[in-house]
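[step 3/7] fold_predict: job queued, chain A
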Amino acid sequence: MANIDNIRNFAIIAHIDHGKSTIADRIIHSCGGLTEREMKAQVLDSMDIERERGITIKAQTVKLNYKAKDGKNYILNIIDTPGHVDFSYEVSRSLYACEGSILIVDSTQGVEAQTLANVYQALDINHEIVPVLNKVDLPASDLEKTKTQIEEVIGIDTEGAVPCSGKTGEGINNILEQIITVLPGPKGESSGDLKCLLVDSWYDTYLGVVILVRVIDGKISKNMKIKMMSTNREYIVEKVGVFTPKATDIDQLNAGEIGFITTGIKILSETKVGDTICDAAKPLKEALPGFKPSKPVVFCGLFPVDSSEYQKLKDGLAKLQLNDASFSFEPESSSALGLGFRCGFLGLLHLEIVTERLEREFDVNLLTTTPGVVYKVYMNNGSIVDLHNPSSLPDPTLIKTIEEPWIKATIITPDQYLGSIIKMCQDKRGVQINLSYSGNRAVVNYELPLNEVVFDFNDRLKSMTSGYASFDYEIIEHREGDLVKLGILVNAEPVDALAMMIHKDFAQRTGREVCEKLKDLIPRHNFMIPVQAAIGGKIIARETIKGFKKDVLTKIHGGGATDRKRKLLEKQKKGKARSKQFGRVEIPQEAFIGVLKISKEK
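[step 4/7] structure written:
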């Protein structure tokens, strides 16, 4: 049993692509966690999609043994966290399980937006922080400038900052020594009653639900009867283990340690992240504070291109939810697209990853509707409705106000791009809060409506700054907005899949663009088709798709406007009116995809 003073629990935090997973690889290698033959790049990124995109999506843990220069043996529990803003809930709960953090900053790029966001999360819960300057092997590396930025922008002393290279392995031993000397050991009593934090849980085909735990006090061992405090249910521990990074069975986990248990639970919803686990024989009076549940902020409809794949999509979503409790779905039907699901995500990258996994792992061809956010609709009778789907907006005469979510955005950019960024934020109804400089980098804070950001903000920011600017946000509150539902009518029939909530000032322009796009994308029919954009009962834009015209007069030779010609034309006119009345307009899938692209191109 390890002495609690010789345990170090720490998270690795950084901006995207600053080298978290690579440095984790080097630490695992130098502590002998895996043999030379078993090592591969990004050992902890287990999903194919993580390895291909080079991003971390799920936080992963490893227990390593390290013999320090003072001759003592230490146990290191590492949690490698994601860097992308969509997965910041993964970071927050990983930080709660640790006492300290390694902050990795790319010495060629300097401090970026997500660096700030993650450091502030760590400082909020009183973490000790070891700054690490990565990528010193690159010619563009500038250690002094990076240190100055860390001190000016974040306010952390960089005297003990460790220069290193995840690629060559230089400086890794110095990082390990800093972890031992700077980061505190966990506090806890192994002899006390069991108090344990549920950090994460996922579904394993063979073991059922695997639960990642951090033991605060006491010990958790095999065949012990435990109780989950949020559900008051009791279970017997079947298996206790740690990741080294391979899953290794042990007899018990003691105070201060991080490991996993299985209890034969089959349903993921029974294990609430942030729950407190205690001994069923000696229940605790009060639970640990836990952490805020992750709430989906972006909603969109997912429909199978081929309606016969509906069941396949349903099974795929259910299986994905087993390993990703942060995403939600419920059935919905659309007159244009058939049966599908309304899904909630943490952001656009999360949406992209889930749809890519559905297409890849379950072989379903998908169509996604326009992503939207959750609006709060205040009714005249005093009730409040959460609106996920614009097509289900109540009658406008019954609505008092509509509120939309706002975010606080932090953008860090080289100062030559500042003007165009400020213009874009103003175009998106942003309010500037703060602007400061660190060298030639500007740090600008804006409050923006999430609806304006969710679609293409990050893409446009990257393209206008050649990829140098970085962006992070947090949701602050719902605010009242002058919002309207823009409906699209094709042949006087509303197309619910194309309805969108939009600010009144942008409604006319967007309506016109959608109508023009649909005019090009919907094929001609035998009758004329009006395509209209409407707010309530008021039409604000219209385009007409001309019908095919058959020349019914070809058989008649010579002569002017005879009765016979007129009769034939009248007959044709009646036929067209009839087919317009009863004919169905088939809207091809390309039309929906085309309309989604409009918003991206704007």
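[step 5/7] annotate
The chain has five domains: 4-182, 195-279, 301-369, 376-481, 484-601.
The mean pLDDT is 79.
exit 0
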